[in-house]
Amino acid sequence: MLEQRRQCSKFVGRLVIAGCLLIAVEVLSADALVDPTKPANYGQQTLNKQVGGESYNLSSIFFGRAKKYAVINGQKVSEGDEFDGGIVRDIGKNSVTVVIGSEIKELKLERAKIDIVKR
Prior knowledge:
2 domains, 4-stranded antiparallel β-sheet, alpha+beta
């Protein structure tokens, strides 16, 4: 009976470790998500910061199982993260709200213009 409990305990421990590894893989893989069909400049918007003249470029928004992520200036951020002088307040379906100093700004994903070339 004691031996069965030890084996069960080992199994549960391994199951917990496997679950933690799966969660870690999901979080880390958000950086590597690339859509090969996305046009080069799709969804890029630049917001000029009032202080220092810096600009912010929102290029992607991802929704994971437990968290939302955005890529601003090439940096993966989530709600509450600080980046380049701003703080991510909210990540929505097509926009990210950031706090820059005392101002609240909204970065929006915009559709890229695609020119059709006739041959």
